[in-house]
Design goal:
By secondary structure, the chain is of the alpha+beta class. It contains five helices and four strands; from the N terminus they run αααββαββα.
């Protein structure tokens, strides 16, 4: 902060809005790259306490972009093909660069049922699924 700003008074006048934070999946894993940095504006007050100028501005810095390699069309084709055989898994990889274009398993399940741990009734239902045995 500039020297001529009353630090105690400045704490009362914050307009900072917190960043949205990734809570799961790619957003959570890549959050440090996606976040960026907030900007700041240091304002000058006159003797009457009204703002009469800007001392300094630090512009915000945009976060990085993350590009996924999953191809929705190929993903849909892989899932449809696997449903025809009832029990299988597939990973489609671009041989030119190793990008994962699709990943699918059948039977599918909601992985969130295992977080933080799976309930006994959900585990029994999974075990009774004919395709799992």
């Amino acid at each position: 902060m500039p020297d001529d700003v009353d630090k105690e008074d400045a704490k009362k006048f914050t307009f900072y809005q917190g960043d949205v934070e990734g809570k799961s999946n790619i957003e959570k894993i890549m959050n440090d790259y996606l976040r960026g940095k907030p900007g700041a504006r240091y304002l000058r007050r006159n003797a009457k306490g009204t703002i009469d100028g800007i001392l300094r501005e630090d512009p915000p810095e945009q976060g990085a972009n993350v590009f996924l390699t999953i191809d929705a069309r190929i993903q849909a084709i892989a899932e449809e093909a696997l449903r025809a055989v009832s029990r299988a898994g597939a990973v489609v990889v671009d041989p030119n660069n190793g990008n994962v274009l699709a990943m699918a398993t059948v039977p599918s399940f909601d992985p969130n049922t295992f977080i933080p741990s799976i309930k006994a009734k959900d585990w029994k239902r999974c075990r009774k699924t004919e395709a799992i045995h």
